[in-house]
Amino acid sequence: MGWFTNHYYEIAAMILFGVGFMGLLLNKNLIKKIVGLNIMDTAVYLLLAQRGMIFGRVAPILGDNLNPSAQQYINPIPAGLVLTGIVVSVSVSAFSLALTHRLYKKYHTLNLDEILLKSKQEKLKAETH
Amino acid sequence: MKDHENTEYKGSTNPFVAWVNADPAPERKPKKEKKQKTAGAEKKAVASSKDEYAAYENRIRKFNSFYKPMAIILCCAFIALMIFVVTQTAPFGIADVPSNNEVSYKYIEDGLKDTGATNVVAGMILDYRAFDTLGESSVLFTAVMSVMILLRKDRDGSLVNDPAEEKVIKEEEKISRIHRDVVLKTMAGIVSPFVILFGIYVVLNGHISPGGGFSGGAIIGAGLILISQGFGSERTKKFFNFKVFTIITSGSLLSYAALKCYSFYTGAHHIETGIPHGIPGAILSSGFILPLNIFVGLIVACTMFGFYSLFTKGEI
Amino acid sequence: MHEMPFVYNFPFFSILLTLVGGMAMPFFRNGKVAQKINIGVIIATGVMNFILLIQLATTGESFTYMMGHFPAPWGNEIKAGPLEALMATMFCFVMGFSLLGGLINIYEDVPKKKQYLYFLMMNLLLCSMLALIYTNDTFTGYVFIEINTLAACAIVMSKDSGETIVATIRYLIMSLLGSGLFLMGLAMLYNMTGHLLMESLQPVIVQMADTGKYFLPLTAVMAITTLGLSVKSALYPFHSWLPNAHGSATSSSSAILSGLVLKGYIILLIKMMYRVYTPELMAKLHITDAMFVLGILGMILGSVKALRERHIKRMTAYSSVAQIGYIFMGLGLNSEIGAMAAVFHIMSHAVTKPMLFLAAGGLANVSGHSYEFKDLRGAAHRNKFAGVAFVIGALSMIGIPLFAGFPPKLFFYTGAIQSDMFRLPVVLIALAISTALNALYYLPVCINIWRTKDEPGHHGHGDEHDSHGHGDEHADHGAHGGAEVLTSHVHDEEEGAVHGGAAAVADTAAAAFTQNKSEAAEHGEHHNTRTTFGFRASMVVFIATNFALGIAYGPMMEVIKKGLELL
Predict the structure, then answer these.
(1) Quick one: C127 exposed, middle or buried, by C-beta within 10 A (0-12, 13-18, 19+)?
(2) How far apart are CA C239 and CA C323, in angstroms?
(3) Which of B147, B162, B165, B219 should be substituted to probe chain A, the one whose Cβ sees the most A Cβ atoms within 10 Å?
(4) Does A30 reside within a domain?
(5) pLDDT tier, B238 (very low <50, low <70, confident <90, very high otherwise)
């Protein structure tokens, strides 16, 4: 059972990644696809963040401790990386939702297949005229 | 080469020649010849486009029927493999793993001395790895500008301007102005000052306690959104219009870049910055980290509010 | 180290300059000002990188530049050598001339109020690509990959139509999948090594490979990061987003996306390969085998797809898939010359493909903005510069000697001979098939656009606009009149005429011009094109560069060799 007890965070992250990946691949609804992408991102952040944790140590906010020892605090690097990652994911979610918004305004549907068909139809109409 | 093709073209029964001539396809040749604008040809064109549409629809359906099981199999295989892979890596939660090396130890042990920040993470992202964070703020900036390309209404008739939708938005605004939700309005009035105040606190204390520009900025942005929800967009427009948005976002980013330029340049040339680190734990300490946090907070707050108002009204 | 030459600041300056230029643009909110800033920044950056290139190529050294007060494993760093400087110079050069060549289309396709945002995105795109080239830190690479993704999507969808937005969302989803995989790879790499800096990663990885510790995770990480970057650079099975995105965007965007953005990711991949994983380890763990196989598949199947296209830009886009296949095939050869040829192919494709896209745009401009082959018949006579450029680009892509596309193919052969016995025959056959296929889809188009007889029905377009007055008016000036109409139209638009009105004027002008042209063609006269000076200049420069690369490839290969050694 060592493989499970030593790695449950990573395994959870991977399962979450799978959930997000499936959501991305199998949903035709664009919003759901974007949610899937967000879940995938979150899974990667979990994978990153769990690396910082060390049992029995505290978060690296020094407070009054002016002579910190590395044995007292957890690893600060993953926290910084996850912060960067979250900001990036906010940005790309906003952008992809804005794209979806525009597509919905234009084609009045969120289904990617229908959007593709409608855009094809539009193109053919433009060609015949 | 050209002339040779020319002489051969006239008949164009040869499929290769027809293809060279870029006619739609050899078998559709007859249609092409009757290209006079008769009603029949028109109908045929429509019919052919319908065929093409049907073919496209069919292709999508076929693709889907093949794609779904493939996607499930691929995904499951990938995840099973990855789960197996992660169990081979270093275990969770113990100190003796490769990632706890001299890099992270240095951040903890020398961070206070090097950066003056008691929040080691803030010191790390805004001083040691400041280039990443500059990139990160630029990602936000890029995103808000891209959303602006997509959703901002301009008055000269681009696709965004849908008169019907404009009407709906105006009506909704009118309704919400007359029947303003009392609960929302009262609560927004009570809560939003505290929210914004808390956001400012988080930003200003980013280098000595948990928090910082990104989290504080998000809180301030949420407070602004709450005000806009409760009191209507006219109220926020009084102090936050497009011009203010531009000046704050671009100005903060430029100031951020200028400060960081200075510190990168001096760093690369091994010159002291001459910025005192101050007393650890005081608000006015840790050199550039406080102003950088403020700039980041401003950028994030404006960006969050910008996203909100672009999505709801298509303008800031 | 205290007294570093001033030239060594240039990578840092160029990254910051492009970034600051982009950030300053919202203050002006004017497309024309933004364009000037953008061109100025590109020129300045190009000159700086060129000086750096000369310095580094003559001294043959590379250097690291601290971004802050803290040295390597703690702070951020950038690193520059001859290869990086060469790539940066080339990127600035290609981007500048792609913009110049497609300027007229940018002003037509992008809504007026949003033109400044287009140039802003161009600036950020250049910034992120420079950062990808110069970065010495994998995580910085990830952050700038995301900027690159967003800016690239933005320049696709800035041409406001349903088609481009559908293309953008497909592009965005695939790109995000790619960068998500890359980030996951980095997270696991950090798990195993505790480093993010390329230089500190390499010894740890080599040691892990020697001791066999974390063997499986290491393989997985290498596979995942390579996969992520391959998805983003449109390696064959992951290319589905590319033809739509590149085919529907405005000409400059297509040129830059195809010529540069894809290459930015490949350069990062090369850096990961040489600086982090080492080529030997990649070969040992069969990552290069996968790259080789997919590259070969891309070379052939991309061309087959291109063969079936009847839309000139989509065809050119599929041709990009094939060319990306060449590059990956070269990287997968496991030989030094193969990698050098791949880098050279990055360059030759980066100067050829933008030329093709811009020429296609120029041809479509004189054919009623249609990209279909049937409407383009004889278009080259209406726009000679575009016609010549397209033919030269096509010959270069096929790999005719004297053109830029030839030397990499030659070196792919040499690299294949250096490689193992299994790869040699495959490369020989694949290169032969792919060259034949390239010829098969490019040459008909070249013939088609130069065809004089059998004028397409499209010229009747002019009648709808009742533009006889215009036509007569300008008949004396020949085509030149049309050019003036069009340039003045651009001016109008820049100066703030009502968009719709301007567009109508443009339509009439174009129609009048087309008619002029067809009339003039019947008389068999000589005439100018209706293109702007910028378009002609960029075509001439691209053609000249193409020849330069095709003839003087020796010194270039020397620089690349040195660069790869110093990477």
Answers:
(1) buried
(2) 12
(3) B147
(4) yes
(5) confident
> Alpha-carbon distance C359 to C356, whole Å?
5
CB C367 within 8 A of CB C382: yes
Query: Do C370 and C473 share a domain, yes or no?
Result: no
Domain span at residue C356? 286-456+538-567
> What are the angstrom distances between the C-alpha of A76 and each of B100, B125, B283?
10, 10, 22
Mutation choice for B interface testing from C12, C125, C143 by most B CBs within 10 A? C143
What was the pLDDT predicted at C454? 53
Instruction: Output the six-digit token pair for B39.
Output: 């009603």
What confidence score (pLDDT) does residue C509 get? 45
Q: Which contacts qualify for A62-67: CB closer than 8 Å, 24 or more apart?
A: A62/B111, A62/B112, A62/B118, A62/B119, A62/B120, A62/B280, A63/B118, A63/B281, A64/B281, A66/B112, A66/B280
Instruction: Please check the confidence at residue C479 and state whether its pLDDT lies above 50.
Output: no
Strands C76-80 and C63-67: antiparallel
Same domain, yes or no: C308 and C335: yes
C342 and C446 both lie in a single domain: yes
Please check whether residues C468 and C448 belong to one and the same domain: no
Domain that holds residue A113: 2-59+71-128
For residue C234, is it within any domain?
A: no
Domain ranges within chain B, ordered by starting residue: 2-76, 117-313
Are residues C463 and C446 part of one domain? no
Which residues in chain A have Cβ-Cβ distances shorter than 8 Å to B68? 26
Of chain B, the end-to-end C-alpha distance in Å amounts to: 59
Q: Do C169 and A103 touch (CB under 8 A)?
A: yes
What is the per-residue pLDDT for B45?
61
Q: What is the pLDDT of residues C311-349, one digit of tens each?
A: 899 999 999 999 999 999 999 988 889 999 999 999 999
- Assigned domain for A64 exists: no
Q: What distance in Å separates the CA atoms of residue C121 and residue C159, rounded to the nearest whole number?
A: 13
Find the mean pLDDT for residues C196-208: 89
Give the mean pLDDT of chain B: 80
> In this predicted structure, what is the pLDDT of residue B160?
52
Chain A nearest-CA residue for C157? A99
CB C46 within 8 A of CB C89: yes
Q: Which of A19, A44, A118, A128 to mutate against chain C (most C CBs within 10 Å)? A: A44
* Residues of C with Cβ-Cβ distance to B114 under 8 angstroms: 69-70
Chain A residues whose CB is inside 8 A of the C187 CB are 44, 47-48, 51, 81
Is residue A90 situated within a structural domain?
A: yes
Domain count, chain A: 1
Confidence of residue B40 (pLDDT cuts 50, 70, 90): low
Query: First CA to last CA across chain A, in angstroms?
Result: 68
pLDDT tens digits, A36-57? 999 999 999 999 888 888 888 8
The verdict on C388 and C306 lying in the same domain is yes
- The ipTM of this complex is 0.94
C304-308, C356-360, C409-413, C474-478: least confidently modelled range = C474-478
User: DSSP strand E in chain A: where?
Assistant: none
Count the domains in chain C. Answer: 2
User: Does A65 map to a domain?
Assistant: no
- Percent of chain C residues topping a pLDDT of 70: 86
Q: Are C156 and C68 in contact (CB under 8 A)?
A: no
- pLDDT tens-place string over residues C159-191: 878 888 889 998 999 999 999 999 999 999 998
Same structural domain for residues C438 and C348? yes
Mean pLDDT of C228-245: 90
pLDDT for A56: 86
Cβ of B146 within 8 Å of Cβ of C20? The answer is: no
- DSSP H helices, chain B, are 2-9, 15-20, 29-33, 39-87, 102-115, 120-123, 130-151, 163-178, 182-204, 213-231, 233-239, 242-268, 289-313
